[in-house]
């Protein structure tokens, strides 16, 4: 994709928002705007402390987020710790899912069985409406291209948007969709420029469920939250229907 290699940052942390009640219920969110639930706020606070202590974020890191409240709330947990301003950009919103937004997986399967079968098989979803998935990385890359020059950026976004953006950065085409597993709630991917191309350095990383200290953060680790699998069709836990293409 044009412009991917000329971004004003050479390190990106793509961070998915924390859990919402709709995530827990298996309800498709898309560009609708439910807030974090209590667990999602705990996830955001824990991940923010881990990211700030991890040594991953150099001085001068910028933080930019989707303007949907579940992402903005997650991002605010980090900007509070880092003491940096929060940038909001609607181009980092989740993929628009048309008639599926607000429905559970079970409701989609009942009302739109052919579309649901396409989703489970990883095929294009016919007749759902919403947004063309090919447009998602275009708008997301355009948002990143307008960031100020910085050593790194934390990009707080959504499951579908982060997947399409990662594919664009790595030069993966539609035939490689679902090669990478999806991000869990409040998990992140770390990408950096090496030898004039983007490389995936760490994927689906999350904060441990223990208090973060400099020593424990330095050891890394972490695990995806249970039920966090937004794009994997039949293999996805039923309680997380977010970000499905």
Briefly characterize the structure.
By secondary structure, the chain is an alpha/beta fold. 32% of the residues lie in helices and 14% in strands. It has a single domain, classed as Phosphoglycerate mutase-like (Rossmann fold, 3-Layer(aba) Sandwich), CATH 3.40.50.1240.
Task: Give your account of this protein's structure.
It is built from eight helices and six strands; from the N terminus they run βααβαβαααβαββα. It has 245 residues and is α/β, with parallel strands linked by helices. It has one domain: Phosphoglycerate mutase-like (Rossmann fold, 3-Layer(aba) Sandwich). Strands 3-2-4-1-5-6 form a six-stranded mixed sheet, sandwiched between helices. The protein is globular, with a radius of gyration of 17 Å. The protein starts with 10 loop residues before the first strand and ends in a 27-residue tail after the last helix. The relative contact order is 0.23.
């Amino acid at each position: 994709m044009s412009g991917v290699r000329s971004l004003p940052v050479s390190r990106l942390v793509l961070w998915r928002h924390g859990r919402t009640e709709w995530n827990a219920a298996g309800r498709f969110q898309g560009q609708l705007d439910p807030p974090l639930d209590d667990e999602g706020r705990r996830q955001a606070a824990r991940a923010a402390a881990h990211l700030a202590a991890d040594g991953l974020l150099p001085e001068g890191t910028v933080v930019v987020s989707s303007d949907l409240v579940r992402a903005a709330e997650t991002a605010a947990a980090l900007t509070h710790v880092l003491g940096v301003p929060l940038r909001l950009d609607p181009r980092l919103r989740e993929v628009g899912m048309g008639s599926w937004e607000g429905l559970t997986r079970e409701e989609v399967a009942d009302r739109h069985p052919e579309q649901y079968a396409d989703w489970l098989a990883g095929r294009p979803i016919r007749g759902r409406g919403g947004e063309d998935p090919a447009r998602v990385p275009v708008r997301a890359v355009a948002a990143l291209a307008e960031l100020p020059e910085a050593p790194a950026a934390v990009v707080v976004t959504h499951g579908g948007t982060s997947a399409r953006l990662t594919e664009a950065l790595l030069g993966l085409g539609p035939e490689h969709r679902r090669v990478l597993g999806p991000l869990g709630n409040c998990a992140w991917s770390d990408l950096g420029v090496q030898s004039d191309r983007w490389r995936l350095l760490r994927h689906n990383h999350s904060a441990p469920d223990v208090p973060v200290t400099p020593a424990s953060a330095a050891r890394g680790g972490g695990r995806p939250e249970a039920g966090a699998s937004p794009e994997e069709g039949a293999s996805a836990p039923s309680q997380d229907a977010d970000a499905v293409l």
